[in-house]
Automatic annotation (TrEMBL):
Belongs to the ABC transporter superfamily. It comes from the Bacteria. The keyword Nucleotide-binding applies. This is ABC transporter ATP-binding protein. Keywords: ATP-binding, Nucleotide-binding, Transport. One of its GO terms (molecular function) is ATP binding. Coiled coil: none annotated. Residues 1-230 form the ABC transporter domain. It comes from Halomonas citrativorans.
Length: 231
């Protein structure tokens, strides 16, 4: 049972309240919930980027509480990819250099070729030397997706990946994310506000009042797939 509390001043805020979640290898899980519900906090805990106030987390069969920050980073290296709402590319690095970054922690032969292949896969084979600011939002998110998949991770976290994109671009980014996910066979944990998107996952959960509850997304037509995403 996982809990996360934070204190600000004299007040204690319970963000996650004794929730429980188990995700099987290869499964795709959508997590929905209002802004401020604690979705990003939950992803941070699941990835071992943050530590719980109470409860035990297991990643790839290892108890995260037994590892320090470096140990958790080593466990993630090459095995976990992230896609964020605001892309989080390093502004001074080219598209190619951004995609190469995760390989620094997980070195292998032919890194340049691997990174270039991933950029080509996301449709940016001609943009390898561009800086993030020279790319559109959709292109930046595609670089971020190439970066998330470049190590052939077992698990990908996506936190509102279309939240900063217009509906058409968002839909393309999502198609790409699901295509790659199926191709590589990763486990996908996806935070989204969008029901059409959530329906493409094996399982949908809603985070509300610190608890996860099963969720049945509304039957919305595909063309509204990313409308309403974002905050
Ligand atoms: N370190 C922190 N200190 C105080 N409040 C925090 C901290 N981290 C998150 N919060 C609060 O916890 C709540 C959940 O945040 P978050 O996980 O980002 O929500 P979501 O991703 O669902 O929008 C928010 O109200 C946020 O302000
Ligand atoms: Mg969030």
């Amino acid at each position: 049972m996982l809990s996360k509390k934070v204190t600000s001043g004299e007040r204690t805020l319970t963000i996650l309240d004794q929730l429980s979640l188990s995700v099987a290898a290869g499964e795709s899980v959508a997590i929905l919930g209002k802004s401020g519900a604690g979705k990003s906090t939950l992803l941070g805990l699941l990835a071992g980027l943050d530590t719980p106030s109470d409860g035990e987390l297991t990643l790839f069969g290892k108890a995260l509480s037994r590892l320090d920050e470096d140990g958790r980073a080593a466990l993630r290296a090459g095995r976990v990819g992230f896609v964020f709402q605001n892309f989080q590319l390093l502004p001074t690095l080219s598209a190619l250099e951004n995609v190469l970054l995760p390989l620094e922690l997980s070195p292998r032969a032919g890194e340049d070729h691997i990174a270039q292949t991933w950029l080509a896969k996301v449709g940016l084979g001609e943009r390898v030397d561009h800086l993030p600011k020279q790319l559109s939002g959709g292109e930046q998110q595609r670089v971020a997706i190439a970066r998330a998949f470049v190590t052939d991770p077992e698990l990908v976290f996506a936190d509102e990946p279309t939240g900063n994109l217009d509906p058409d671009t968002g839909a393309q980014v999502i198609d790409l994310l699901f295509t790659l996910n199926h191709e590589v066979g990763t486990t996908l944990i996806l935070v989204t506000h969008d029901h059409a998107l959530a329906r493409r996952c094996d399982r949908c959960l809603q985070l509300t009042q610190g608890q996860l509850i099963p969720f049945v997304p509304a039957d919305v037509p595909a063309e509204s797939s990313v409308a309403g995403e974002g905050q």
